[in-house]
Amino acid sequence: MADIGHEVVGIDIDQEKVDSLSAGNAPFFEPGLSTLLRRNVSSGRLSFSTDSSAIRGAQVHFIGVGTPQSSNGAADLTYVDKAVEQMLPHLGACESGAEIVAGKSTVPVGTASRLSQRIAATGATLVWNPEFLREGFAVKDTLEPDRLVYGLPDDPRDAQEAQDVLDAVYAPVMSSGTPRLCMDYATAELVKTAANAFLATKISFINAMARICDTVKADVTDLADAIGMDERIGHRFLRAGIGFGGGCLPKDIRAFQARADQLGEGETLAFLAEVDRINDWMRASVIDTAAELLGDDLPTSRIAILGATFKPDSDDMRNSPALEIATDLARRAGSVVVTDPQAAPILAVNDDLPYEVTTEAQDALADADLAILGTEWHEYTQLDPHRAARLMRHARVIDGRNALDPQAWKAAGFTYIGIGRR
Ligand code: UDX
Q: Where on this chain does substrate bind (predicted)?
């Protein structure tokens, strides 16, 4: 927002985060973000504070707090509610036109309508404006989104005013032709939830096909290539492997099911439990394959896990399939070593880990009896299999992301096992 010309203040309750951001350091790894952060902090357009009164007088207030999973699977709305609570006393002080609160957090359908009245009582208007960015592509997805979605209030005048304000805010983004879709609150909330449910379903669908391919000795990568050529299906999100993780897809499909249950529509979304089950299954089946491959030698074997994050170009390890596999195998194998270019230093702070940690792939591969690709970081997909074979005690690899070239690895002497790849 600062980079496209606005004056921005970011509020957080965590003083450490605010200090780090004020110094131009993002508290997590995201390609390109630090450059933007520094440029705008030093120009004075962007500042951070723990004092919520700093929002007073601003025209647009974005809510971007997390909605983590609570123990029953539902989304925990504590942070959203607290953010609104802290905002309320400071709303109604904007002197330059209509004042807008724009919710970006992923919330159960019905939340915006619940919050809207208290916000309206201050004279401000609530818009639900879901966020679709992917980790690793956060900057690009924010500056060049596929679409902007505005969930607007029912009152046509309020809706038009809110739309005009947000259009002005997003004008530099929309000038490149980004479509902007206006709808009611509930639909806007559902767009986000439905998009993530669809993406998760697509991944579990191809993973189910991978299992069928394994059984009949077919190849899921050829299958995905061929079905993806049907434009109605498309190529993306059809990469079979150890499945989806991260802070969004797993929790969002569970929160969606929990909300559907409350609405008496549990049966309607029952298939999402199946999507989740297939996803868990992929992790378990790689663990089983590793155990089978190493057989009686498992308790003395050394296993290298390439990648700890839930996807490349991120340091996020929330619900990471790679890490779950590492943790489970560490209980059964002689030793497990995890390598990751971004996450290793974060993991290494914990001296209570069941596995070893290193940033260097070559150190992880040294004397290993099996390597498992858990995250398709560029440095791992570009590994020279001949060199890897020389480093390892036994040349065996499980390609948990179907991201290696089976021919090249086999030619280097590897026992290669992909997911649904003959
Ligand atoms: C996701 C949505 O894509 C994004 O629109 C939303 O705003 C937040 O949630 P993100 O969590 O960053 O984004 O990751 P994404 O790129 O969607 O990948 C999710 C998981 O699916 C990763 O663990 C990835 O490895 C896995 N995945 C993805 C597959 O296993 N196969 C695929 O074909 C694609």
A: 132-135, 192, 237-241, 245, 311
